[in-house]
Design goal:
Elements: H1 2-21, H2 28-41, H3 47-59, H4 66-74, H5 76-81, H6 83-124
C-alpha cells in the first residue's frame, strides 16, 4: 500500500504539472519538477514520502532512454544529413555548459568563503 501511495504522489504532481502547462509556456515535466522541488522545500512533502518509488525510478532510469534511442536510430538518415549543424550545436552547448558550471562553482566557493569569514568575524567580536 505504501508503494501505491508513493506512485500516487508522484503521478499527482506530474498531473498537476501537465495541467499547469496548458496555462504556462513551459513543458509539464519542467513544471512538475519545479512543483516537486517547492513541495520538498516547503516541507509539505517529505523525502520519505516518495523515497522508495523515486529510488526505484532512479535505479531503472536507463530503461526510460530506450524509446529515445530507438527514435534516433529510426531517424539516422536525417541525422546524417544534418550532422555538421548537429555537432556544432552539441559542441557550443557543451562549452556554454562547462563555462556556466565553472563560474557557478567559483561563485559558490566565493560566497562560502565570504560567509565563513563573516561568521569568524562575529565570533571574535
Amino acid at each position: 500500500m505504501k508503494l501505491l501511495i508513493q506512485i500516487g504522489i508522484i503521478f499527482g504532481v506530474c498531473w498537476v504539472g501537465e495541467g499547469l502547462s496548458k496555462l504556462l509556456p513551459l513543458p509539464g515535466s519542467v513544471i512538475s519538477m519545479i512543483l516537486l522541488f517547492l513541495l520538498l522545500l516547503t516541507k509539505l512533502l517529505k523525502p520519505a514520502h516518495i523515497a522508495e518509488k523515486s529510488d526505484f525510478l532512479l535505479k531503472n532510469m536507463a530503461f526510460f532512454f530506450i524509446p529515445a534511442g530507438v527514435a534516433i536510430m529510426e531517424s539516422l538518415g536525417v541525422l546524417w544529413e544534418n550532422l555538421l549543424p548537429f555537432l556544432t550545436v552539441c559542441f557550443v552547448t557543451m562549452v556554454i555548459t562547462f563555462a556556466a558550471t565553472a563560474y557557478t562553482v567559483r561563485l559558490v566557493i566565493w560566497l562560502q568563503n565570504r560567509l565563513s569569514a563573516g561568521k569568524e568575524g562575529k565570533q571574535r567580536g
